[in-house]
Amino acid sequence: MICLPLRVEKRIFGIFCVYSDESYRFGEGDIQFFSLMTDLSAIAIENLRSGLLKLWFMMKVSHQLRSPLNAVYTMLKPVSEEYLGPLSAGQKNTLDRSLKRIKNLGELINDLLKLGEKKSEVAAPVWYPVDLAATMRQMKEFFQTQARQKGIDFRCRSRRPAQGPRE
Questions:
Q1: Quick check: helix, strand or coil at residue 32?
Q2: Other CB atoms within 10 Å distance of the CB of residue 126
Q3: DSSP assignment letter at 17
């Protein structure tokens, strides 16, 4: 059995294990191959996790910024339109410029939310049933030649709790 860490930089977040029926069967080439496979898998997992965290952060920040910004805009708009009394030219100019900047910032936040929604549509997983036995057979076909060349008996097994081992 070989167990290799799923690691990105110095952070270990899982273990990749390969089993053999024979003792001391894996050679240096096997270990290098499985180590490379483990490193690539860890990088793929980390990239997915990082992308999802960035998307979540962007959506959360955009939402948290939009609410108070909208509140300030709706409070200043009636003042700017002089519903609460007349304004001097300087006050009117300052309020109009402030409202324009708030509106631009709101549009930027809305663009961020739209971008996040588009990314989440692309990144959203599509769930469908998987024939695990067929997937295992495909993996076996893919790795069988390499295993045979190295003298490794490559078998894929799944264990079902109620039924025991199956080929």
A1: helix
A2: 4
A3: E
Radius of gyration of the chain (CA): 29
Q: Give, as one character, the DSSP assignment of residue 79.
A: H
Q: What spatial distance separates the first Cα and last Cα of the chain, rounded to whole Å? A: 19
pLDDT tens figures, 40-70: 888 888 888 887 887 788 777 777 888 888 8
pLDDT confidence band for 1 (50 / 70 / 90)? confident
**Every domain of the chain and the residues it spans:** 2-154
Q: In Å, how far are 44, 60, 134, 156 from 57, measured between CA atoms?
A: 20, 5, 38, 40
Q: Which residue is it, tokens 């930027």? A: 108
Whether 132 and 158 have beta carbons less than 8 Å apart is answered as: yes
Strands 164-166 and 11-18: unpaired
Cα gap 78→84, rounded to integer Å: 7
Condensed to tens digits (0 to 9), the pLDDT of residues 21-43 reads 767 677 788 878 888 888 888 88
